[in-house]
Design goal:
- This protein has 4 domains: 143 residues, Response regulator (Rossmann fold), CATH 3.40.50.2300; 106 residues, Beta-Lactamase (2-Layer Sandwich); 117 residues, PAS domain (Beta-Lactamase, 2-Layer Sandwich); 193 residues, Hypothetical protein af1432 (Orthogonal Bundle).
- It is built from 26 helices and 15 strands.
- The longest helix has 38 residues.
- It is of the alpha/beta class.
- The strands form 3 sheets. A 5-stranded parallel β-sheet has the order 2-1-3-4-5, sandwiched between helices.
Length: 612
């Protein structure tokens, strides 16, 4: 009887080892023979198992470890059954297997009544045990998959709710739910909509026949799609592209309707205007041709225009582009864009551009060009694939605006920003009687570490700009402490440590990326990989990579430089310390990078050596 019951749980599955390896099992047992059997068979099969002999310890483990299965011998104590009942009440999600030598059906049924999920007869047989465990593992994975699907479903529902107009009605058309987007557009309050028939927003332009057709479709359990004109509370109108879905229960009965709509009011208005403007009965072909020429003239006057064939060969160019490039139409037509292509623009830029427009998609961006006198000019460009009647690309049109002055101004502002940052860093170093070359070396060391660590070029550039600001908080430290020639006492050191917080507070509110990163570096460059640094004692990769990089760059340079409180160390002594602090003060990966490229770091040190 029991063999048949247990075997029914076991299905053939090649992934059984994987399933079992995810389980944590709590065994509550006193019988040595059973414990030895379970230990021998479980040790290489499950993730973890714990063997205990009292109930008090069980609750400690269940509170601290994510246990999947509890295997309880009910003969362990007289109150084992009440304990089993309490276990299921407090931890209903845990799978409870009760083992004993019961052999009557009434006793086994009682075990299920108090909450047991299954029963394992003694003496325990290996195949029955593993069939049960596999069944639990499969259920666990199915539960996780269901939870993941439910989470995904909730996110989909939230996304729909955020981006569209949503309402629900009961089978009679009475509104039971309306989201914020629907409430806002309709002009009604939520309480004015809920409980009302949906025709509260019906516009008189929508005929009864339209709604009869809609309801006929929906009542036949089919999705209805169409354009609907609705009325707002104040009497205006809005137009929506609607999809209404009947929601069915397990008996295939309609329990509600969910309507998802997109507001297309403006689009419909534009369509009406366009239809009116292009109505041949109102305007002759000659007048339309005139308007077309006027539009073309307006585009040519305010933009640079190019047209190319499918191979990128220029077939048309206007005067504005000729003026910018310095080339004549005769020189440009028949050539490709390579004639004005700036040599610094990588090929991958144009490969991506062509990949997009060949797929009939519009490309927008800024292109760096070079004129006939090798001067750089920038064009904010839109390239549009022009399609034939059959949907095939027949040519490409490029419409551009000259943004050279804007780009140059942006670059000038960036250079000014860099200069201000470096100057501020130098001011801090000068006040603490250190040289400006210290921050230059730290910047170069940091960029080099970032490069070999694998940071992106943009992030390396930000790191190089921000790292000189690591000690900016020292502006808030008194000279008497900042320039003390000897060691700090305990109180002085605590004050000195606050420069990390001061620097962070100074920079954290900036919207500039470089100052945001600088605030993090100022805050974290004295943190240590082992968690024994300051101000927060964070460790490992909890410290930002910029903070870890600047920590190594700053210490390497500081040890090799004279300070008011010490003389410069010899290189060998510095390198010995860096090795010793691998995984302690410094990120071990960064230390390895440092030694792999030591010659490059030494070159930076020699290039920016302090002047005596």
């Amino acid at each position: 009887m029991f063999s048949t019951y247990v075997s029914s749980l076991c299905e053939k599955d090649k992934n059984i080892d994987f399933l079992l390896s995810k389980l944590n099992i709590l065994i509550i047992e006193t019988d040595k023979e059973s414990i030895d059997f379970l230990s021998l068979n479980l040790k290489d099969s499950v993730k973890n198992f714990f063997v205990i002999s009292n109930f008090e310890k069980a609750f400690e483990i269940l509170e601290s470890i994510n246990i999947d299965i509890i295997l309880l011998d009910i003969e362990i104590a007289p109150n084992a059954l009440s304990f089993a009942k309490e276990i299921k009440e407090r931890y209903f999600e845990k799978y409870l297997i009760i083992s004993s030598d019961f052999n009557d059906l009434d006793s086994i049924n009682y075990l299920f009544d108090i909450g047991a999920d299954t029963y394992l007869p003694k003496p325990i047989e290996k195949n029955k045990l593993f069939c049960m465990l596999k069944n639990v593992a499969q259920n666990k994975i199915k539960t996780q998959e269901l939870e993941a699907k439910n989470l995904l479903l909730e996110q989909y529902k939230d996304a729909v709710d955020e981006s569209t107009l949503v309402s629900k009605t009961d089978p009679k058309g009475v509104i039971t739910y309306a989201n914020e987007q629907f409430i806002k557009l309709s002009g009604y309050k939520k309480e004015e909509l809920i409980g009302k028939p949906h025709n509260i927003v019906r516009h008189m332009d929508m005929s009864k026949e339209d709604f009869a057709d809609m309801w006929n479709t929906l009542k036949n359990k089919k999705v209805w799609k169409g354009i609907v004109k609705n009325r707002t509370k104040n009497g205006t109108y809005y137009i929506v592209d609607a999809t209404i879905i009947p929601i069915l229960n397990t008996k295939s009965e309609i329990v509600e309707y969910v309507a998802i709509r997109h507001d297309i009011t403006e689009l419909e208005k534009y369509k009406d205007i366009l239809k009116e403007e292009l109505d041949v009965s109102k305007q002759g072909l000659e007048e339309k041709t005139h308007f077309l020429r006027e539009y073309e003239k307006a585009i040519n006057e305010s933009n640079s225009v190019l047209r190319t064939d499918l191979n990128g060969v220029i077939t048309y160019v206007n005067d504005s582009f000729c003026k910018l490039s310095g080339h004549s139409k005769y020189t440009l037509i028949g050539n490709t864009h390579r004639i004005v292509r700036h040599p610094s623009v990588p090929s991958i830029f144009f490969s991506k551009l062509w990949g997009r427009i060949k797929n009939k998609k519009i490309w927008r961006g800024v292109i760096k060009n070079i004129d006939i006198k090798n001067r750089t000019f920038y064009l904010a460009t839109t390239i549009i694939p022009i399609l034939g009647l059959k949907g095939e690309i027949v040519e490409y049109m490029s419409i551009s605006q000259d943004v050279t002055d804007l780009i140059n101004l942006h670059e000038e502002l960036e250079e000014t920003q860099k200069e201000i940052i470096c100057t501020l860093g130098e001011v801090v170093e000068t006040r603490s009687k250190e040289t400006g070359n210290h921050i230059k070396r730290v910047a170069e060391y940091s960029a080099l570490l970032g490069k070999y660590y694998g940071l992106s070029p943009d992030r390396i550039e930000l790191l190089k700009l921000a790292s000189p600001m690591h000690d900016v908080g020292k502006v808030g430290i008194a000279d008497a402490i900042l320039n003390k020639p000897g060691r700090f006492d305990e109180n002085e050191f605590e004050i000195m440590k606050t420069h990390t917080n001061i620097g962070y507070e100074m920079l954290k509110s900036s919207k500039r990326d470089v100052l945001k990163i600088a605030s993090v570096i100022a805050y974290e460059h004295h943190e240590k990989y082992n968690g024994k640094g300051y101000p927060n004692g964070i460790s490992g990769e909890s410290i930002s990579i910029e903070g870890r990089i600047t920590a190594l760059a700053d210490v390497f340079d500081a040890l090799g430089s004279d300070r008011v409180y010490k003389k410069a160390w010899e290189l060998d002594r510095i390198l010995k310390l860096v090795k010793e602090e691998r995984g302690e003060h410094f990120d071990p990966k960064l230390v390895d990078i440092f030694f792999e490229h030591l010659d490059e770091f030494i070159k930076i040190r020699d290039t920016y050596r302090d002047k005596i």
